[in-house]
Write a structure and sequence with these properties.
957 residues; mainly beta; 22-stranded antiparallel barrel; 5-stranded mixed β-sheet; 14 helices; 7% helix; 45% strand
């Protein structure tokens, strides 16, 4: 449990301010000592004006190093996942994460990582070299670049902060502050795993510091952090609801895939039409080989293997490929972090500082061997021309074609070639600057260079020139598979970079009845770059089944800010802030105003109003685009998602297509308005209660045009859905005539747009209690609860905004793409400390998620029905299947999850601190979620580690 200091005497509360202050912790340390009778004035996160107290108009939660250690978190991402204010919409670095593989991100209020700004010592970190087209993830701020061991404290600004920090701070800011003015040396080692020895990690870190800034005029600090984690396959992840997954999803069942090195051949039903036998009804036109070991032979069974009634596998004996062997619950990884800081006092009033950091994260992902299934075309992408359809069709007379009078499509897996991938991210950071005092002004200026590089290697990708020889030279599939040139590793590279020069100053402008009038002002010039380059062979269209991500962009951003603090009386103050940002195509000014009223020594009220903006990510506006593959229901040919129309095929109900996502240089920035109102109540010196209401509304959200929406609205997007134009494959009317424009769907081209709006609101409650036990020590208890009131989204202007709290939003309102929005998230912890002993007991709670279908925009269903299982009304469409789901789950929901954790620390040996953590003390399995059959748990809300142990030893020299 994280013990956050909440009370008015202890809270670090952000005020309405502007530019990100640099090296905040250093500034606090070097502040001039005031007279004994006067309180010391310091900078606090979110403000460029020094103040004597640490309370303001917006809430900030603070976690110190001791509190972080008590959580047992191995990574920054694990740490943040325990805080109730964080929601869904993150990139989770446990297995291959698709577009954001190898990265971990944070999502305050569930608004996505692109609306949560990450700072290191008060300055932004660069986004990493990703172009994730998923909504809310266009800017990927990778938490893996920040080592837990170097953190002195974390400050989480839970309010709109664009007037303070500029773009990306709509939902809030997380400021990681590293150790400063540190003297001495210490080393820490830890090892962790669950009670089965899985999900193992090892870590060693160290820090050394020399010099005292106050006494010696300098201080140097160097830290390192090296860690590794083991691969855990899903068969070894025992703490999931495997019995349910096995019955409903056939998880770890005997059937994995019918695509093996024993090929399937599909007869062309109409000469030249490229329409092939694929269903049970025309099973006579399907022939498969069974030359595998008898242990691999499987006979298709609808009930046992979760097959559809029309599946060609029903009653057919075929060779099975065990896909489960390569699915992971945790991928293998190695991390290394190095951070150095040096501060030197040039004169009594001027201090120079510099910061150097290097991070390397490496992930290795297992994967299944690549396949060819040519019953429908796939897309071969290239960057210097239009994509083309690729379909391997064996001509009559080909040595592998079993049909003497018809062409044949092929289903084949190159099992002799390993799949998988490797991702390496490297990041370098350099900061140098000066800070000082001149007259009545405190000032600071700094130069920041931060670059992140990414190398992605995809193993065993099929090389088209070699595969083409199957037809051009009449080579057999076996001969082709034996050719070493049939597959190769494909290497994609990229980088993202921020170069920034900033300056700021603060002073006082006289006094009001409540104290000094504070003024801060400053400016910033920042250059952002993003470059992503696919492998040459992919660019020229020689790789089958792999898309390109090609981005080349840069921009200059100029900013200026001003902040004013006005303590009108001893009990009432207001803060005003404004920030001006100039992008190449847009100029933005956003204000913020906050107020604090001290009713008496036990009760304080505070409120804030802020406007915000988020500039489109470079990946959304720069030259290039993101190519991808996706699966959807072709609602033209299979309107209800279950039964294709005449002339259609069962594959239309779950169609694999390609997509080209083009940049849009005309995108406008997202805008937001946020409100907060709260109270801090301290009825006794040992009890503090903090309650805050928040509301954030984003408009003109930048998002990728939905492929499903394009397909379902051909009248709006006539040229974006690419279909087979052969009339032999079109739908037919009642007279058997082909219907123009209804051929099988091959691709959907999309682009980024400014679309509707998202609105969130809720209540945060934090209660802290301290109790002295005399000789028995001290007891501290903390309760942290986030209650979501509303989460509404209209994907397009004018659409209905339904409240999606407590549901998977994209299921509850079929017109949206919202993820899981739990109504309740809470933590409760109690810490007992006595002499050399410290024990913390923590409970965490995440509420249930409904998977009921309730509406589709303005079409509100008379009776909600479950997306999975059976029993839906005849009008239901686009369902998730899994008939056995209803046998296990009666309320169509993912259950709540409550876990307990314990931490113990002992300092009885000289210079040693020994710690033990047990997470999920009661070994509670993750709730069943039918959407995660591979992992076995919802990666956004739960984990499948079970009871997890961590042992740590720290020695100070």
């Amino acid at each position: 449990m994280i013990k956050q200091q909440l009370v008015i005497k202890r809270s670090v509360i952000a005020v309405s301010v502007a530019l990100a202050s640099a090296s905040i912790a250093q500034a606090q340390t070097q502040s001039a000592q005031p007279a004994a009778a006067a309180p010391q004035k310091v900078f606090v996160t979110g403000s460029n004006i020094k103040r004597a107290d640490k309370e303001g108009s917006s809430p900030v939660s603070t976690l110190n190093a001791k509190q972080i250690a008590a959580t047992g978190a191995n990574t920054v991402a694990e740490l943040l996942s325990t805080i109730p204010a964080f929601g869904s919409g993150t990139s989770v670095d446990i297995v291959d994460g698709g577009f954001s593989a190898g990265a971990s991100t944070a999502s305050l209020r569930g608004l996505g990582s692109s609306s949560t700004l990450i700072l290191l010592n008060g300055r932004r970190i660069t986004a990493s070299a990703y172009a994730d087209p998923n909504q809310g993830k266009s800017a990927v701020y990778d938490l893996n670049t920040i080592p837990v061991s170097a953190i002195e404290r974390v400050e989480i600004f839970k309010d709109g902060a664009s007037a303070v920090y500029g773009s990306d701070a709509i939902a809030g800011v997380i400021n990681f502050i590293t150790k400063t003015n540190y003297q001495g040396t210490e080393i820490t080692a830890s090892t962790s795993a669950n009670d089965d020895g899985e999900f193992a990690r090892r870590n060693i870190s160290g820090v050394t510091g020399f010099g005292d800034l106050q006494n010696d005029g300098y201080n140097g600090f160097l830290s390192f952090d090296i860690s590794s984690r083991d691969q855990t396959g899903i068969r070894d992840a025992k703490d999931v609801k495997q019995e349910i997954y096995a019955d409903v999803n056939q998880r770890l069942g005997e059937y994995g895939s019918y695509l093996t090195n024993q090929p399937f051949f599909f007869r062309e039903r109409t000469s030249g039409a490229k329409n092939f036998s694929t269903t049970l009804a025309n099973g006579a036109g399907i022939i498969n080989r069974t030359g595998c070991d008898s242990s691999q032979l499987v006979t298709g069974n609808r009930d046992k293997h979760n097959l559809t009634a029309t599946s060609m596998l029903n009653g057919r004996t075929f060779c099975n490929y065990d896909t489960w062997n390569n699915y992971e619950a945790q991928s293998k990884g190695n991390d290394a972090n190095l951070l150095g800081k040096f501060t030197y006092q040039l004169t009594p009033d001027i201090t120079a500082f510099t910061e150097l950091a290097y991070t390397r994260t490496e992930r290795e992902y297992r994967g299944n061997s690549k396949t060819i299934l040519s019953t429908s075309p796939t897309t071969v992408f290239r960057t210097n021309g239009l994509p083309s359809n690729y379909q391997l069709i064996l001509p009559v007379g080909h040595p592998d074609n079993p049909f003497p009078d018809a062409r044949s499509a092929v289903g084949y897996r190159f099992t002799n070639i390993d799949g998988g991938a490797k991702n390496v991210n490297e990041s370098g950071r350099f900061l140098a600057g000066l800070r000082g005092t001149t007259g009545q002004f405190d000032w600071e200026t700094g130069l920041l260079l931060n670059r992140s590089e990414r190398t992605e290697t995809n193993h065993g990708m099929l090389y088209r020139p070699t595969v083409d020889r199957i037809v051009s030279e009449g080579r057999t599939l076996a001969e082709t598979a034996a050719d070493p040139s049939v597959a190769r590793d494909v290497i994609n590279t990229g980088f993202a970079q921020v170069s920034q020069l900033d300056a700021k100053a603060s002073t006082t402008l006289g006094q009001l009845a409540g104290g000094d009038i504070g003024l801060a002002f400053g400016g910033e010039i920042r250059q952002e770059k993003l470059s992503m380059n696919p492998d040459y062979e992919t660019q020229v269209g020689n790789i089958i089944g792999l898309a390109n991500t090609l981005v080349e962009g840069r921009r200059m951003v100029k900013s200026a800010f001003v902040e004013l603090r006005t303590p009108f009386t001893k009990n009432f103050e207001m803060d005003f802030a404004g920030r001006w940002d100039k992008y190449p195509t847009e100029t933005s000014f956003v204000p913020k105003v906050g107020a604090k009223f001290i009713a008496n020594d036990k009760l304080t009220f505070r409120a804030s109003y802020a406007e915000g903006f988020r500039a489109p990510a470079l990946s959304q506006i720069a030259e290039g685009g993101v190519q991808s593959f996706t699966t959807l229901t072709d609602t033209v040919r299979c309107p209800d998602g279950k039964n294709p129309l005449p002339g259609g095929d069962s594959s239309d109900c779950s169609r694999g297509i390609s997509s080209m996502s083009a940049a849009n240089p005309n995108l406008k920035p997202e805008t937001s308005k946020s409100y907060s109102f709260g109270a801090i109540f301290a009825p006794t010196r040992n009890l503090d209660v903090l309650i805050d209401y928040y509301r954030i509304r984003k408009e003109d959200e930048t998002a990728l045009l939905s492929a499903s929406y394009v397909v379902s609205h051909p009248e709006l997007y006539q040229d974006l859905a690419i279909r087979d134009t052969n009339p032999l494959n079109a739908l037919v009317d009642g007279n058997g005539n082909p219907i123009p424009g209804t051929g099988p769907l091959n691709a959907v081209n999309r682009y980024y747009v400014n679309q509707g709006a998202t609105e969130v609101s809720g209540i945060d409650l934090e209660v802290a209690h301290r109790l002295s036990l005399g000789d028995m020590g001290r007891l501290s208890t903390k309760f942290d609860w986030s209650y979501q009131l509303r989460y509404k989204r209209a994907e397009r202007p004018g659409e209905r905004e339904a409240n999606l709290v407590g549901t998977n939003g994209g299921l509850s309102d079929w017109a949206t793409s919202v993820g899981d929005i739990p109504r309740h998230r809470a933590t409760l912890s109690t810490n007992w400390t006595r002499d050399v002993h410290s024990v913390t007991l923590t409970g965490e709670f995440v509420s249930r998620i409904s998977m009921l279908r309730r509406s589709d925009d303005f079409d509100i269903y008379p009776v909600p029905y479950c997306y999975y299982g059976k029993g839906q009304p005849s009008s239901a469409y686009s369902l998730g299947g899994l008939e056995k789901f209803s046998n296990w789950v009666s309320d169509c929901s993912v259950p709540y999850w409550a876990t307990m954790h314990v931490a113990y620390s002992y300092t009885g040996f000289k210079n040693w601190t020994l710690s033990a953590n047990i997470r999920n003390l009661l070994d509670k399995a993750a709730p069943y979620d039918p959407r995660y059959p591979e992992q076995g748990f919802n990666t956004q809300l739960h984990n499948g580690q079970g009871r997890y142990f961590r042992l740590t030893a720290n020695y100070k020299f």
